[in-house]
Design brief:
There is one protein chain. With 400 residues, this protein is α/β, with parallel strands linked by helices. The protein is built from 14 helices and 19 strands. The strands form six sheets. Strands 7-16-8-9-12 form a five-stranded parallel β-sheet, with helices on one face. The chain has a four-stranded parallel β-sheet with strand order 2-1-6-19, covered by helices on one side. α2 runs parallel beside α5 and α2 packs across α14. It is globular, with a radius of gyration of 22 Å. The structure holds flavin-adenine dinucleotide. The site of flavin-adenine dinucleotide (FAD) has 31 residues, from α2 and α3.
Length: 400
């Protein structure tokens, strides 16, 4: 048995040097791998398939509309439409998490059946090749690497909450099963879709919930989408990121990349202004207490509870604090990237600077998903962005 394992390690070392390694098996990793394989590139994919999505609370629905919820494959045969037609699954909107997850797993089985469900412990480079140490002890060499390791490492914890233990406070993304909060008093901080949807789910699960937000809660109404019939496609590209007008500027990552630097930033910010989907509104308004225009000034652990001092001078003491405070990308937080390699990356605001093919300042090292967002725009945060991103990376790599 031991001899076999050693033999396998040796094979890996000798034969896999010309591979392209994809780190991540979420929507981006799977899509990039599908496109690379179609280009005839030898591809290895590492990571836990759809790990982030498998950890979301079961009752959650996607904010994305139907046309923005397909993972891109090179043939176009594996869209969410194809999935429901092939499997006789009823179309539902808002899209339940279970439907999207089943679709993504079907996509993976059809396009990338050979995902290696193991983490990369270390990614280093010797100037010619990349060296990947896997958590199961194996080592792999690769000519190209695409980092599609997602958003989990970037969960943002505001400074007032950094010293609180997880027994009283944590980021929304740390929670799958919300049932343990039944009958508990909860404060949710934030006004984006995640904060609002977790607040609704907690309330519906029997918790006593208050939502505290720095500004006003806004709802994304999509009036033009509902009222313009077939003409809606003029106002809304399929990708569905941002309000009308802005949404076309960000719809195609390569187009966004060519926008003047001075307008990229405001366009990006406007496209992803925090807010809730219209269908969520009735589950929040009149259902839970909302305290707007208020910040947490101080938070302290108080026995098994947490005590908050607010900017309006009031205080709260509750059983648990949920931080729906989003994700703040910073490539240095991907601790599996060897520090010497990370130092070679040119970085702006935490994002690696990328060329037109999504390649970083380190040759043959590519980034997909959220970390490509500074160069290619906010669509890279969403499933709909897989189309522009994966195809571009695969074409660039095939020509390299
Ligand atoms: C609550 C919530 C709701 C959302 N709703 C929507 C929505 O409605 N529509 C939408 O488009 N987007 C939504 N998003 C955004 C969503 O995160 C992205 O669309 C999508 O998951 C990004 O895909 P990804 O492949 O870049 O990353 P992820 O889905 O985060 O996948 C990351 C992958 O990397 C792997 N990985 C991480 N570290 C390593 C390592 N060291 N070695 C190997 N593998 C590693 C993981 O195992 C995983 O396979 C939502 C996000 C959240 C948190």
């Amino acid at each position: 048995m031991k001899a076999n394992t050693n033999c396998k390690k040796e094979l890996v070392k000798v034969k896999r040097e010309d591979y392209t390694a994809v780190i991540g098996a979420g929507p981006y990793g799977l899509s990039v791998a599908a496109h690379l394989k179609a280009q005839g590139l030898q591809t290895l994919v590492f990571g836990k398939t759809m790990e982030l999505w498998k950890k979301m609370p079961p009752g959650l629905c996607l904010k994305s509309i139907w046309s923005a919820s397909s993972i891109s494959d090179p043939s176009g045969k594996y869209s969410i439409d194809q999935y429901i037609a092939t499997t006789n699954t009823p179309r539902q909107e808002p899209i339940p998490l279970s439907l999207f997850l089943n679709y993504a797993l079907w996509f993976q089985r059809q396009n990338v059946p050979d995902v290696e469900p193991v983490y990369i412990r270390s990614l280093a480079a010797d100037g010619k090749r990349f060296h990947l140490d896997l958590e199961d002890g194996r080592a792999v060499k690769a000519s190209n690497v695409v980092v599609a390791a997602g958003i989990s490492s970037f969960a943002y914890i505001p400074s007032f909450a950094r010293d609180l233990p997880e027994t009283v406070a944590s980021h929304t993304s740390a929670h799958t099963d919300l049932s343990r909060f039944k009958d508990q008093s909860i404060i949710v901080i934030g006004k984006g879709q995640s904060a609002l949807e977790y607040a609704a789910l907690l309330h519906e699960g029997g918790a006593d919930v208050e939502l505290i937000t720095r500004g006003l809660v806004r709802w994304h109404s999509k009036i033009l989408y509902e009222r313009t019939g077939p003409a809606r496609h003029i106002f809304y590209p399929p990708g569905d990121v941002g309000p009308p007008g802005i949404n076309w500027l960000v719809a195609f990552p390569s187009f966004y990349n060519r926008l003047p630097e001075g307008i990229k930033d405001p366009v990006h910010k406007r496209a992803v202004l925090p807010g809730g989907a219209k269908w969520l509104r009735s589950r929040i308004e009149g259902q839970i207490r909302i305290t707007e225009n208020t910040q947490v000034v101080k938070a302290t652990e108080q026995g098994e509870r947490v005590c908050l001092e607010l900017s309006d001078g009031t205080k709260r003491e509750v059983d648990y604090l949920f931080l729906g405070t989003g994700f703040q990308p910073d490539v240095h937080k991907l601790t599996f990237i060897d520090p010497a390699l990370c130092q070679q990356l040119q970085v702006k605001n935490g994002y690696p600077i990328l060329n037109v093919g999504f390649e970083s300042s380190v040759s043959h090292l590519y980034f997909a998903g959220l970390l490509a967002g500074n160069t290619f725009g906010p669509t890279c945060r969403f499933v709909s962005g897989t189309k522009g991103v994966a195809r571009n990376i695969a074409h660039h790599l095939a020509r390299a």
